[in-house]
Amino acid sequence: MSRTSRAREETRRFLSIEAVQVAEVDIGGEEVSLRPGPGSPPVTAGEVFVLVRSGGRPLGTFLGRVPEGAEPPAVLGERARAGFGGTGEDVRPEASAPPYTTVVVATRERAGQLARALDSLLAQDHPAFEILVVDNAPVTAETRDLVERKYGERVRYLREPVPGLAVAHNRGLGAALGEVVAFTDDDVVADPRWLTELTAPFAGDPGLGCATGLILPARLNTPAQVLLESHGGFAKGFEPRLYDPADPPAGEPLFPFTAGRFGSGANMAFRTSVLRGVGGFDPATGAGTAARGGDDLYGFVRVLADGHRLRYTPGALVWHHHRDTWRDLETQAYGYGAGLTAYLTAVLVRRPALLPAFLARLPRGLAYARALTAAREAAGSGTAGSGAPGGHGTRSHPWPARLSRLQRRGMLYGPIGYVRARRALRSAGRGPA
Questions:
Q1: What tens digit of pLDDT does each residue of 130-163 get?
Q2: CA gap 278, 263 in Å, rounded
Q3: Cβ atoms within 10 A of the Cβ of 385, count?
């Protein structure tokens, strides 16, 4: 099949993707409870992406269908119990009290989304935290006005004139009062227990430098949102994991350089002293710079390379509003590729002592990457199912070849983008150390 024919077929497939409802089912009691995802209408007949909980604890996801005339709680509850066992009794262990935490939200000209995120953050059950909004390179006073008018003293406002997500995060890091500093985005809705679940592990593990959590889709209304989530979205699974540089995980030949497996920037926290100790995020990485991304990955690797542990905690849940359009997906694919190689370039430029370890791991890492790419392209050929979202951790859903090509082009561009971003920072008088 020619490239033109493949492109037409990919377009046909993309346009045929139908919207999917989002809901959550809790099987932790005798009666199943069902509620729609944040901002979604009540569940009706049709396909539903379902998060299964037990006593609030996330267990997994599945794609269900509610027939016409059926009761959604009965249909989806039965499927949830069958798939996740028994009554789903909650066996969550007692956790230490979480430390005082600063939550940093960087934003730029998206006051409507920001208000939704801040409302969810102010509803957290964490006993002691502050919220800090960093207004990054604003062109209007809309964000400042929102914070001052609606939130007053409950939210601190900072203005950062230099564009770039890492620059904004570093501004928040410098102003943080908490023992732990957590970061999330302005396009999420945080689960009420998000901050407690994300930060409690720091109290019980002095060697913990970073924690990440679960990200699920707030809505699946467009083909782009469904396609992204059908390929796993931002989720990293439902099993807690501890990454320890003293005991590298088997089966990850590039560890700790496989930073994309650890988590994402919309749901991460660091021990404040540890992140400050490694110099914060590289300001020449992240959205808003020529590097296009990679700031979160840089932070993960720097903390691990400094000897600290990283814990993935699926109980720490945020709901993410995925981008809406095919063009958004193209931009994301290119940006992810660019961010990946930009962050690797940043790590090796700023920590050259890691170069021998990286080169030693590279041959096995490339073989591993080729195997993943082959699996993804086989899925993209249309031989691996309909691509509807459901379970996470697999790569068996269709993924357009054009997006894979854009990601590879981004990977080629990443080091160039990083160099350009460093030059721009120097011109602004804010060059990397």
A1: 999 999 999 999 999 999 999 999 999 999 999 9
A2: 19
A3: 13
**Residue 358 backbone zone (phi > 0: left; psi -120 to 50: alpha; other: beta):** alpha
Rounded to the nearest 10 degrees, the angle between the axes of helix 295-305 and helix 165-175 is 50
Closest CA to 433 of 355, 356, 346: 346
- The structure tokens 């953050």 sit at 121
What is the DSSP secondary structure assignment for residue 43, as one 8-state letter?
Answer: P
Query: What burial letters (b/e) apply to 138-171, b meaning 16+ CB within 10 Å?
Result: beeeebbebbeeebeeebbbbebebbbbbbbbbb
Q: Do you find a cis peptide bond into 256, omega within 30 degrees of 0?
A: yes
Angle between helices 401-427 and 326-350 (to 10 degrees): 50
The pLDDT assigned to 369 comes to 53
Q: Which amino acid is at 256?
A: P
Over the stretch 84-93, which tens digit does the pLDDT of each residue have?
975 445 555 5
How do residues 258-316 score in pLDDT, each as one tens digit?
888 999 999 999 999 999 999 999 999 999 999 999 999 999 999 999 999 999 999 99
Asked if residue 262 lies in contact with residue 412, where contact means CB atoms within 8 angstroms, the answer is no
Extract long-range pairs of 42-47: CB within 8 Å, 24+ residues apart: 43/72, 43/76, 44/72, 45/69, 45/70, 46/20, 46/21, 47/18, 47/20, 47/21, 47/388
Residue 137 half-sphere exposure, CB side, CA atoms within 13 Å? 12
Name the strand (E) or helix (H) holding 340.
helix 326-350
Can you spell out the DSSP letters for 155-176? SEEEEE-S--HHHHHHHHHHH-
